[in-house]
Amino acid sequence: MITGGHDGSSPRGTKTCYLYDLMNNGIWLKVANMNHARETHGCAGFIASDGKSSAIVAGGRYDGDNLNSVEVYSTANWQWTVKAPLTSHRRHVVMASVNNRIFILGHHDPVQEFHPDTNQWTTVGSARTWGWGLFVIPYNY
Fold first, then answer.
1. Rounded distance, CA 85 to CA 120, Å?
2. Which of 9, 51, 94, 101 has its C-alpha lying 20 to 30 A from 125's C-alpha?
3. pTM score, whole prediction
């Protein structure tokens, strides 16, 4: 899934989203826009409690301001839903889902975990020296 980003036409992020459809000859489908335009945000996929594929976006930047907003996209209704905000405004973040646990890190803020069933964020680690330009590869051991 491609979510938001900078389209080069303005200093703001976009709401635009596309989903890669492997079942339909590998084409990109335009799906519902996010509620909030954003760029430099985090995004991760996970399986919701209803068994449907979902995506979460968090943080980022819009028009020069850092965001704390969070949204979840569900293939159950093909829509975005606003969720509990991050505890701080952050951009240049990365997200990962490991065993359906959703984490966000970067921008010198603590590592946080999102709990979709309770719509809550908890702090699970310190920021150490992490800044931005990070990449995360989920690794189960």
1. 9
2. 51
3. 0.87
